[in-house]
Amino acid sequence: MGIKNKNLSIIDKDLKVEGELACDGKIVIKGTVKGSISGESVIIAEEGNVFSDMKVEDITIGGCFEGKITAAGKVIVLSSGKCTGVVTCNDLIVESGGIINAEVMCTKDCAVSSKDGFHREKKASVKKIWGKKNNKTDENLSGSDKEEKFL
After folding, report:
1. Residues sharing a CB contact under 8 Å with residue 76, sequence separation 6 or more, in sequence order
2. Does residue 135 register a pLDDT over 80?
3. Is residue 63 a contact partner of residue 46, using CB atoms and an 8 Å limit?
4. Are the C-beta atoms of residues 95 and 75 closer than 8 Å to each other?
5. pLDDT tens-digit readout, 62-92
6. If pLDDT is split at 50, 70 and 90, which confidence band does 34 have?
7. Number of other CB atoms surrounding residue 148 within 10 Å
8. Which of these, 7, 64, 76, 150, could form a disulfide with 126 (CB 3.0-4.6 Å)?
């Protein structure tokens, strides 16, 4: 059993960054980032704005993202999130209320190489998670039916 990387970096809400970011571990973006991002796990908080070309393992979007994402794992758009641009990933999850106006390709051949030679491939899937908003369709669904899988 390997040791998980516990690095955590935060770009706070009043911080604006332009350029190239490379990180090991998790990065939480509450401010504004313009440029390229590479790393393991990126979280764009609700108040975060990112304009980037990024290559990551996983990304969670709770704020605004505009650009190109290449993710070896999951792209998750939360109910408060907005994603615009081009997305290539293995798994795409969009919560009810989340906005995705992007060219999307989910493929098992998506792989990201990082400075440590990381490479990952797996089966593709797209999921829509139904939220607890006042959707008429939500009221009629049982617990197991609230998740739809599109292949």
Report:
1. 58, 59, 60, 61, 93, 94, 95
2. no
3. yes
4. no
5. 999 999 999 999 999 999 999 999 999 999 9
6. very high
7. 11
8. 150
